[in-house]
Amino acid sequence: MTPAGEPPHRTVKTRAGAVRGSVRDGIASFKGIPYADARRFRSPGPAPSWDGVRDADAFGTAPPQRPPAPGVPAVWRPGDGLDCLTVNVWTAGPGAARLPVMVWIHGGRWAYGAASMPQYDGSVLARSGVVVVTFDYRTGFEGFGHVPGAPGNRGLLDQLAALTWVQDNIAAFGGDPGNVTVFGQSAGAASAALLAAAPAAAGLFRRCVLQSLPAGYLGPSEARQVTERLAASAGAAPTLDGLAALPPEALLAEPGAFAPVVDGDLVTAPPWEAIAGGAARGIDLVCGFTHDEYRGFPPPPGPGRIDLAAVVTRFGLSPAAAAAYRAAYPGSAAELFTTVMSDALVRMPTTFTAEAHARGGGRTWLYDFAWRGGPLGAAHGVDVPFVFGLPHTRYAARLLGAAPGFAALSGRICAAWTGFAATGDPGWPAFDGSGGITRIWDDTPRDTAYPAAGSLRIWRERA
Questions:
Q1: Coil, helix or strand for 162?
Q2: What gap in Å lies between CA 387 and CA 395, rounded to an integer?
Q3: What is the pTM of this model?
Q4: Residue 257 — very low, low, confident or very high, per pLDDT cuts 50/70/90?
Q5: 177/317 Cα distance (integer angstroms)
Q6: Taking a C-beta distance cutoff of 8 angstroms, is the pair 131, 91 a contact?
Q7: In DSSP terms, which residues pair with 9 in a beta bridge?
Q8: What is the per-residue DSSP string for 283-313?
Q9: What is the full DSSP assignment across 19-53?
Q10: What are the angstrom distances between the C-alpha of 186 and each of 256, 264, 291, 347?
Q11: Cα–Cα distance between 212 and 210 in angstroms, integer?
């Protein structure tokens, strides 16, 4: 509710025109502000300007996508179109407050997700004295599919455009454009890391929080093969004209694997390689993973059907790594499978990124989110409700259950993230890049030696 005497709306002047947002409990929110024009299979164009005052009380259109799972409400329908490049702001201080700015990049396997999802509401974080920004970017084939004659990694180009909008406009919302922190989870974390290493993003932000940075990036030939398979299945030519003639829902109807393409331009290598040698030395970096990343994904094969040697070799380890895993992690075959998959898909990529940044001279911190109070334990994505302080969304209910101890742990994490954004110090010792100090986020947080030393030894001996 709006306190007595507080106006229910606030108006802010952006470079494109004035926007009118809503005020609730002292936080002004502005939603659905265009930051760029989503020109299909092209780089984002300039956002339109407008006369008068534009209402900014509703989220913009989500990027084209299918529902992520049966029974999950769709966030995009064919009639919604492609005009999805909008930004949202939560702030306690429109005007000249010069507050730290936190810009969220959502995850979703490069194919799903939207800033309108309730788990990304920025009002709780904004009460901690920061300006929170979320935005949509093109996902799936529209954002990351290879299109001959068109720019690649269009979703990342959208993200650059959103960060440029922040630089140009955030001061009017009370934010400090010289103190911007980008934070993201899963694909959003990888996006932030790739941008941190990209010369095109120089000066757009000074800090990053990478929550569960994943593996999985495509080379140019792999990206072309995905496009050729998709075009053949849809009955179209794998050309710019052939693909542009298909409506976005036709491309969504076909399975495909989309991810940033290592094109040698915007993306020169996976994050842990791209920042090696100090490419992001000037960026302060917090990296972390959930302790059981693979929980919540497809369950492991049944008893007697897990070929651990085949699993480890699939990820570039030698067959001997299977025995090393069994020695390091006594337990059931299913538990061991989950550990290997957690390492391969998220935990090692995140750790290697932290190590590379520290070795390159960048200020680095590492954490392990180990809280297991929910039905899926410390699964991929369980940290998101704690960061945003939102235990009552549909997303949170699936991961948290009754969420014992949520308020205390969420308060500590919110304070760490916003403190890092404000000062560059999240509140625990820095990570030195050699398996050093790691913050363990649990009911009682603690700082210890790196908690997955057995996994790290195995992966350092990769064939």
A1: helix
A2: 13
A3: 0.96
A4: confident
A5: 44
A6: yes
A7: 22
A8: SEEEEEEETTTTTTSSPPPPTT---HHHHHH
A9: EEEEEETTEEEEEEEE-SB--TTS--BPPPP-SSE
A10: 18, 22, 14, 11
A11: 6
Phi, psi (rounded to 5 degrees) for 225: -65, -40
pLDDT tens, 34-92? 999 999 999 999 999 999 999 999 999 999 999 887 888 889 999 999 999 999 999 99
- Extract the tokens encoding 427: 């509140």
Residues with active-site annotation:
186, 293, 380
Single out the residue of 24, 30, 261 nearest to residue 155, CA to CA.
261
- 342-358 mean pLDDT: 97
- CB-based contact 424:398 (threshold 8 Å): no
User: Which of 97, 92, 93, 102 lies closest to 416 in space, CA to CA?
Assistant: 102
Residues 356 and 379: their CA atoms lie apart, in Å, by 25
Calpha distance 186→110 (Å, rounded): 9
Q: How many whole angstroms separate alpha carbon 79 and alpha carbon 54?
A: 23
**Residues forming beta bridges with residue 28, ordered by sequence position:** 23, 91
User: Cα–chain-centroid distance for residue 99?
Assistant: 22
What stretch of H or E contains 272? helix 271-274
Q: What is the dihedral sign for C-alpha 114, 119, 123, 125?
A: negative
Query: What is the distance between the alpha carbons of residues 461 and 463, in angstroms, rounded to a whole number?
Result: 6
Beta bridge partners of 102: 132, 181
Long-range contact list for 279-282, CB < 8 A, 24+ apart?
279/196, 279/197, 279/360, 280/193, 280/196, 280/197, 280/208, 280/357, 280/360, 280/362, 281/360, 281/361, 281/362, 282/206, 282/362
